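Minutes, methods subgroup
Present: GH (chair), OT, SY

1. OT presented the first of two proteins processed in the latest run. Sequence and structure tokens recorded below as shown on screen.
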Amino acid sequence: MMPSGPPPRVFWTSLIFLLLACCLLPTGFPKRVELAPLPLWQPLGEQLNLSCLVFGGAPRDHLTVVLLRREEELGRQPVGKEEPAKVTFMVQPRREDHGTNFSCRSELDLRSQGLELFQNTSAPRKLQTFAMPKTAPRLVFPRFWEMETSWPVKCSLDGLFPASEAHIQLALGNQKLNATVASHADTLTATATAKTEQEGTQEIVCNVTLGVENRETRESLVAYSFQGPNLNLSESNATEGTPVTVTCAAGPRVQVMLDGFPAAVPGQPAQLLLKATEMDDKRTFVCNATLKVHGVTLHRNRSVQLRVLYGPTIDRAKCPQRLMWKEKTMHILQCQARGNPKPQLQCLQEGSKFKVPVGIPFLVLLNHSGTYSCQAASSRGTDKMLVMMDVQGRNPVTINIVLGVLAILGLVTLAAASVYVFWVQRQRDIYHLTPRSTRWRLTSTQQVTVAEELS
């Protein structure tokens, strides 16, 4: 059942357009419109020609093609009379155009004929842009590479866009390395760990590919074999007086030197013979090995320590045999013993077996006086020596006597001074004035016997 009411506008427009196409005007929709295929990768900085293809459509003087970037109109041109019609646009791609869809839209404008604007849009095509620097990748790795040893390799390239879509590959000779790749901003970096089993000159290759271009760096490395040095002792824990052989050896072409004495020729070992003594305990032997590779001298050292087992000895220079100390003062009994294994040292008072501390401070008392037997003992034997300790006490009776004598001397001195002052006073005449007459007469206060002169 047909719906009631007037036919829709679209129906009438289509009907009129068909009538014009069939009877009146050579008019028709374009069969299709296409955007010609884009380059797989478009270098930034280069102009890009985008072509729109229009199949059919009339009248051509009313037919236009529009180039679109997403929904943005970049340009429009009329369609020529060739079939199919080709319209070309010039575009300068930008970084932000990477991954952007472009399309073509045909517009048949019949509004001047009393009709409408008829549009048709092609399927979009995605544009991929890129930028690749002219410089080569930077390779970082050891120029001299020891066989059977792992070494890091790093390669990087700056100025890439988009760096995340670039590909980088590291190889050692014909062996591809398993690299870890990272991109940051416009830089792409690959790091890997490599190992070689082949001696001699080899090649490290770093290749970076982006878009339709690539950059490559090839550099040489030298792989070498450096065996040793091996440093051995015939006995690492030797008893005092036993012979010990020290041997330093390395691989072919390696020159060794043991404690400053070189081997006769490269590849030969160096040896040192000695009889172990107390002075050799904890002695360190050093083996130096050198290898020349392509004019470069490589060095490697190894050391070993000799332990000599010997009996204990008390150091007489650091353990005085006689000590004189004051009572109630702090002192240290500075006695030391050497030996391997390390001996135990203790000092006991003869008779009482009283133990005095060794090497730590202690308060000296009167009962510390006496003779002490100091003994150092280990599994290798013992060593003894006697130490005399004389502690001088503080005697209060002597102090009182001294104070008493000083007091008596003070009293005697005071008395002598008083007598001297009195005697001086007696020797001095003192006169007084007696008013008996108008004339002054001197009268002595002392009784003076005057002998009258016989007339």
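2. SY then presented the second protein from the same run.
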Amino acid sequence: MGMAQLGNRLYTGESSFDFVGRKKLWFLIAAALVLVSAVLLWKPGLTFGIEFEGGSEFRVTGSANQDAAREAVQAVVPGSEPTVTSVGQNGVRVQTETLTSGQLDSIRGELAQRMRVAETNVTTSTVGPSWGADVTNKAVTGLVVFLVLVSIVMTLYFRAWTMALASLVALFHDLVITAGVYAAVGFEVTPASVIGFLTILGYSLYDTVVVFDKVRENTTEAFLKRDRTFSQAANLAINQTVVRSVNTTVVALLPVAAILFIGDLLLGAGTLRDISLALFVGMLVGAYSSIFVATPLLVVLRGREARVKELDAAATGPARTEDTVAAAEPQA
């Protein structure tokens, strides 16, 4: 059975997976992933780039000898532990704590001598701690503003605060797990990473809105016909959109995976690697949360409402007559 045929069967209800009925399992998996990510964020923790912490940076072109670069810094600043990474196939980036102008000149000369390149092939830059703190504050502000706007828009669009809350929980799930992966692999958190985080939150939100839109359509019909419980209508909505979500995610992940592979292994470009890792993990986790976290959580939140309890009782109780069932069936 092809994906198109499976999608048609799921959309019409001929085939169905019980996503909502297994919500405890999905919540357990999500909680375990968030817990592991939280532990990783505590230890070893995130590695923040020079843009956030401040410091000095050297870029050398024409040589990829990382040991020589490390020795050059330690020759001028004994006991220092510089961060040395490859840039492309014939260059390195060296990051240190903030240095004086004299130390910068001395290390530049040492790098040129030990790596056997001209001094013009060594560039230096320094980021002050105040500038790094400003970048951090703006990143946090951007995230908070994004979440506030999401809450307002979702509440107004769906006219239900429960959908906004379920969406925020799913976004929190995506953000924590993505950050946990960053901590696990040791990639630096840079402004490009922050852009990636905000991008995947938007992608995850889009996926959730598509499912919620179908949930609203199905549950509105269920309230009128009284032929399905709220959870059955929500589960049908997931089945109707799951193939689309999977296809969209796979298509989006393919170019991101290519960027991650080329940027990290071939080009050694930190910016490409940082943003592509956030996009790859975030899109994958976002697809999971929109299907397995957001909608089942919405069912739990709405299940406490008197109107929903009344619907469930009417859809499953013995009070339904043959005329009611016939009226609920779609007309040819």
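Chair's summary of item 2: The two ends are 27 Å apart (CA to CA).
Next meeting: continue with the remaining queue.
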